[in-house]
Every structure is written in C-alpha cells, then in structure tokens.
Amino acid sequence: MMQIKPLRSMVGSYGRLRRNRPASIDDHIAEKLISKGLAVPYHEGEAAGMAPVNPTGSTNARTGGKTGVEKPSSSSQAGRVQKTSRSTSQKGARGSSQSTKVGG
Q: pTM of the entire structure?
C-alpha cells in the first residue's frame, strides 16, 4: 500500500478520494495516478511543513453572486424583507363591496 495525496477528488476501483486528503491505495494504482499528474506521493512528516490550502482563512471561496458583491446576512437589518400590510380601511372597503347586494 502506498500513501498518496490526490490533487483532485476522484472515484475508481480504489474507492472515493478527496482532494488534498491523504489515502492508502495499492502501489500499481498509486503509481498510475502519480504518473498522470492526478496525485503526489505523501509521507507522514509532510503535513507539518505545508502551507494551508486556503491562507486567507475564509471558509467560503464564493462570497457573492454574479456581481461578486457579498450577500447580506439574513440576521442583519439589510437582509430582512420588509413585509407590507394592508390598512383596516382597505380590508373593510374590499369586503363590504363584495357582500352588498342590489335589488334583493
């Protein structure tokens, strides 16, 4: 068994591998993945000297929509939708016109 670190997520006879997550797979399969450039050999001591995958510390790489502007939080005042309500005079006028019969 050989330890590798896949450069992208992949699925095959070796199972499901996640990007940048070390995995132990058969030597002949590991060598094929390394030769194709899909994985790199992994040794236990490597993890301590490696830079973080996301150095900014952000957990979400996609912060905005099509415009790139970050969407407001749902708990913020800007993120809340203003509900419109009808006044009682509008409700009463609407209900009375429907219930009025002429010539009855």
A: 0.44
